[in-house]
Amino acid sequence: VALPVIVVSEAIGEGIGVGTASYLGRLLGAKDESKVERLIATSITLMFLVSIILLVATIVFLRPVISFFTTDPMVIKHSYDYLLNMPMKSITKTNYEKLKANILFNILLKN
């Protein structure tokens, strides 16, 4: 029951992280430090805004989504409790990990 919700949440985080990492790599290659700083700030802001939007959407639509997959009240209760905190956690974790990996990789390339 939880997997489809988690997969969508992770996909959004991966998209932000991969897009940011790709653009960051190009900016670092072009040695455009001012845009690098702005991109990192924008990426972190976007990460938190998307997380908040997904959190609100999860609170509003989670029960109907879970009810689509099962009618068992116990499963619905446990799924709701489990999934309530997933969008914020997965988006921030995914984006942060991609951004951190790209920054470390580019630092290694510079040295």
Report on the architecture of this protein.
The chain has 111 residues and is an all-alpha fold. It has four helices and no strands. The protein has helices at residues 3-29, 33-69, 73-83, 86-110. Helix 1 runs antiparallel to helix 2 (33-69), helix 1 (3-29) runs parallel beside helix 4 (86-110) and helix 2 runs antiparallel to helix 3. The longest helix is centred in the middle third of the chain and has 37 residues, at 33-69. The N and C termini lie far apart (47 Å).
Helices and strands, in N-to-C order?
HHHH
What overall form do the CA principal axes indicate? elongated
Q: Please state the average pLDDT score.
A: 79
Oligomer: single chain
Give the count of helical stretches: 4
Q: What's the layout of helices and strands?
A:
Blueprint: H1 3-29, H2 33-69, H3 73-83, H4 86-110
Helix pairs in contact: 1-2, 1-4, 2-3, 2-4
Q: What labels would you give this structure?
A:
111 residues; 0% strand; mainly alpha; 90% helix
Outline:
By secondary structure, the protein is mostly helical. It is built from 4 helices and no strands. Helices cover 90% and strands 0% of the residues.
